[in-house]
Amino acid sequence: MLGRLRMDTSQALKAYDTIAGSVFCKENKNWKTQDGLFNATTLQNRVEELVALRKRGEYMLDDTDNSSSDLGKAFVAAMPAHNMTHPRLFRTYLARKNASANCKIWEAARATTAAVTFFERIAIGQEGGAGEEFIDAGIKCNNPAIRLLTEAQAVFGGDRALNCLVSIGTGHPGVISLSKPDTFQNLLPTNVIDVLKKIATDCEGTAHELSERFENAPGSYFRFNVTHGAGSISLEEWKRMGEVETHTRAYLEETAVQASIDAVVQLLCRPGDSRVILADAYNLW
Prior knowledge:
Helices cover 38% and strands 11% of the residues. The chain is an alpha+beta fold.
């Protein structure tokens, strides 16, 4: 919404509430024998309606994007279902290598939201060709910040100045731990399955790695992530968005968070002050 459809945050939040209300409602649930908890066609229809309303084209590649444009570049990530070695990026701009199909916006939205058990996977391919099946990139790439650095260097070159890297989380999930199994868990280790799921979708490991990487370049990397409450709210619990807002406002009132936000604003207002180039971002250990 923000990157390809050029919506501001207020517009995006309003659109999300509308779409979520249609998608995650009781009437849109699938039968237990069907793939996915919710009917993905409803999500497709709502996104197509939003794309038509915005009147900015129906494909991911943005025709207004060029070297002289002041519009930002954006991508969304999805994971090939049959080979999860690397995520696939669906971009709003042309790429010199590892280019993906220029799919429709609704297809990219379906792929990047095809959370396992929530929605069925989607097949995407070049027109007239075989389609690849995708699920969301929550597995292995739930925090794509390092992937962003790699992409930025490929697009802009290693000599491009890195003003700052801002990473925004969806709420700290808490500590990942494995309790001692009881008799039931020895027979059916559901706790192990739960831990493996948390490890596969963990974002904090990447955040910690980046904090270490930029330790010697203060003021270059910022991580914002609500520390209490928001991380326990699941994807389909859209009616609890009021709780998310409450926890977020409390987080934003913290002195350290306010100081970081002020620092980001100053950096964005003075883009020429960067002391780091993209190539150095891989040599800051």
